[in-house]
Design goal:
Largest sheet: 9 strands, mixed
CATH topology: OB fold (Dihydrolipoamide Acetyltransferase, E2P)
Shape: globular
Radius of gyration: 14 Å
Helix content: under 10%
Structural class: mainly beta
Order of helices and strands: EHEEEEEEEE
CATH architecture: Beta Barrel
CATH superfamily: Conjugative transposon protein, DUF961
Number of domains: 1
Strand content: over 45%
């Protein structure tokens, strides 16, 4: 299940880089035939805790950002996941696009 996230409460992100979003076999993921991209960002919480997150967006071409650009995701969604075999878990983030802040 995808959960909408209030971008104004989530806060701005700092772009680290962009890479194609790929499956294990190396094929690029697509949404409705449009390539998907993982935008690597530094997320800093209001308490000062920082971590790297990836936000997946669908776009015909890779989003272009200068490293360090502060952005706000548009229509941010989150989905938690768990892999029973490995015991790993996490949260995936998705957005329609980004706007500079």
């Amino acid at each position: 299940m995808y959960l909408p996230i209030d971008e104004t409460r989530f806060g701005a992100l700092e772009v680290v880089g962009v890479r194609p979003s790929t499956a294990k076999d190396g094929e690029q993921w697509k949404k409705d035939g449009v390539p998907q991209w993982d935008v690597a960002c530094t997320y800093t919480s209001r308490s000062g805790f920082a971590r790297r997150i990836y936000v997946r967006v669908a776009a015909a071409t890779a989003p272009e950002f200068t490293r360090g650009t502060k952005v706000m995701p548009v229509n941010l969604l989150a989905r938690d996941w768990f892999k029973k075999q490995s015991g790993k878990n996490g949260v995936d983030f998705f957005a329609d696009s980004f706007k500079a802040v």
